[in-house]
Amino acid sequence: MPRPPNHSRPHPSRAVSLSESVVSMRRPILAANWKMNLGRPEDALDFVRRIRYALNEIETVDRIVCPPFTAMAAVAEALAATSIAVGAQNMHFEDKGAHTGEISAAMLAGLCRFVILGHSERRADGGALETDAAINRKVRAALAHGLTPIVCVGENLVQMEKGETQAFVSGQVAGALDGLAPEQASRCVIAYEPLWAIGTGKAATPADANRVITLSIRAPISDRFGETVAQAVRVQYGGSVTADNIAPFMAMPEIDGALVGGASLKPDYVDLVRNAAEAAGSR
Ligand code: PEP
């Protein structure tokens, strides 16, 4: 369900040329990144069966579960009769070939609808397959196969302390979306995940996350693809989100959901999603 337009909440820092009705169509999106957990199909099924009925009822937001590759088929089957979508945590940019241990968009297309790309944990150890240029190739491959990329961007602690967040994050965004058609760019989801907030229990403040998203994500998208695209792209916040702190993030005008790591492995993840949906509905 689209959120109702809220004319009392103007864009915080720059003019918006797009009508409120288009902005209101950004459907919130909550994605669970299980990382390298629950990879045995029986463990994944045990967990997903515990949450799927309650999660399925929270219909006002998109809900994505991203298990390890080894559990994707089992999870996809368990969620087949629900409105909960499945995502992958990574993929290669080539369709096939001599890439031992890799999985392609062509292989994922029948299994899932979303794919996380450029997560900071992968950028940290991924070398040549996790540069901005490689992530751009992955984005193109994902879109070509009908997958929605969730592109992770975010600065580290040193960059944040030196005041380099805007230059760094906007560069990551420009690199990931380079050369796309506006329609393709509008289909991407961006996850703003400051590295210092991931798995640390120290979330960004909602206001700071909203500001970075405005200046370092929507602004460069607007520059490259136009304001309509910038206002259509869904942008998540990620980093130590919990059931207790999600609501003020969702109340921010530029935050359209969350990418959730640790908290998505707990049964009260359903409370997190429910709280997010309620907060989004009232903004
Ligand atoms: C993540 O890894 O994408 C993440 C946001 O992790 P956490 O929620 O545990 O900080």
Report the sheet-strand fraction: 5-15%
Q: Low-confidence segments, ≥5 residues, pLDDT <50?
A: 1-22
Overall pLDDT metric: 92
Bound molecules: phosphoenolpyruvate
Short description:
The chain is an alpha/beta fold.
Could you explain how this protein is built, in words?
The chain is an alpha/beta fold. The chain is built from 13 helices and 8 strands. The chain has helices at residues 20-23, 41-56, 69-78, 105-108, 120-125, 132-144, 157-161, 165-177, 182-186, 206-225, 227-232, 246-250, 269-281, and strands at residues 29-33, 62-66, 85-88, 114-117, 148-153, 189-192, 234-238, 257-260. The protein has an 8-stranded parallel beta barrel, surrounded by 5 helices. The model is unreliable at 1-22 (pLDDT under 50). Bound molecules: phosphoenolpyruvate (PEP). The site of phosphoenolpyruvate has 13 residues, from β8.
Topology, element by element:
Elements: H1 20-23, E1 29-33, H2 41-56, E2 62-66, H3 69-78, E3 85-88, H4 105-108, E4 114-117, H5 120-125, H6 132-144, E5 148-153, H7 157-161, H8 165-177, H9 182-186, E6 189-192, H10 206-225, H11 227-232, E7 234-238, H12 246-250, E8 257-260, H13 269-281
Parallel strand pairs: 1-2, 1-8, 2-3, 3-4, 4-5, 5-6, 6-7, 7-8
Helix pairs in contact: 2-3, 6-8, 8-10
